[in-house]
Design goal:
The protein is α/β, with parallel strands linked by helices and 232 residues long. It has 2 domains: 124 residues, Rossmann fold (3-Layer(aba) Sandwich), CATH 3.40.50.2300; 98 residues, Arc Repressor Mutant, subunit A, CATH 1.10.10.10. The chain has 8 helices and 12 strands. A 5-stranded parallel sheet has the order 2-1-3-4-5, with helices on both faces. Strand 3, helix 3 and strand 4 form a beta-alpha-beta unit. It is elongated, with a radius of gyration of 19 Å. The two termini are 35 Å apart.
Length: 232
């Protein structure tokens, strides 16, 4: 199975370059521009490895590192642009599996990625991806990657499944388009709400009795979407 790597960096060009090079190396890459979005995305779709920049806006990278390790149990390679040893020492004390100082050679980073993945044990947070969600007659099984309504299985694409799951973990709660973009598609899709609109339409065609008059996935114009339990 292709390893999934989450790249977290507020530098757009670096983030895109890393994701591209990782995919060329045979990995599946997703991205986030800040720690908050990265943690939310990781809870939705647990990565095999996180490449984490220390100097992030909002939540500090070291705090994010602690949460990735303690809450999700995923291996982390952190990036630092600082020339001092402090970040390396503190990061390794907090449980980072390795670190790379910017600027770096992509081949060196890919070698570190390969080494960390090879020695990493199965993520402690893997159980998060095996918990079945039951919302009325809607059953979502992340481990088997299946969705059923009233006992009938529904065929969804990976994006459709991830979108439904992102809504299902917050039943009855309004989830903004920006949150869905960050958690399901990654930071590179920020500012492209039409991606969400199109996938919501496709999803409704598959899970709604009447897609033109939805009762499961409700929307609030300019706000977002919420998933309501039906039947059961």
């Amino acid at each position: 199975m292709t390893k999934h790597i989450l790249v977290v960096d507020d530098d757009t060009l670096l983030r895109r370059s890393l994701a591209l090079n990782l995919e060329r190396a045979g990995y599946r890459a997703s991205t986030a521009a800040n720690a908050e979005d990265a943690l939310a995305a990781a809870r939705l779709n647990l990565p095999d490895l996180v490449i984490l920049d220390i100097g992030l806006p909002g939540m500090d990278g070291l705090d994010a590192l602690r949460r990735f390790k303690e809450q999700l149990g995923v291996p982390v390679i952190f990036l630092t642009a600082r020339r001092r040893n402090l970040d390396q020492v503190v990061g390794l004390e907090l449980g980072a599996d390795d670190y790379v100082t910017k600027p770096f050679d992509i081949d060196v980073l890919l070698a570190r990625v390969k080494t960390v993945l090879r020695r990493a044990e199965p993520p402690l947070g893997a159980s998060l991806q095996t918990v079945t969600i039951a919302l009325g007659d809607l059953i979502i099984d992340p481990a088997a990657h299946t969705v059923s309504i009233g006992g009938k299985f529904i065929e969804l694409t990976r994006r459709e499944f991830d979108l439904l799951y992102a809504l299902a973990v917050r039943p009855n709660q309004m989830v903004s388009v920006d949150q869905l973009l960050a958690q399901v598609w990654g930071a590179e899709y920020q500012g492209q709400p039409q991606v969400v609109y199109v996938h919501i339409r496709w999803l409704r065609q598959k899970i709604e009795a009447d897609p033109d008059h939805p009762t499961r996935i409700l929307s609030a114009r300019g706000v977002g979407y919420r998933l309501l339990p039906q039947g059961g």
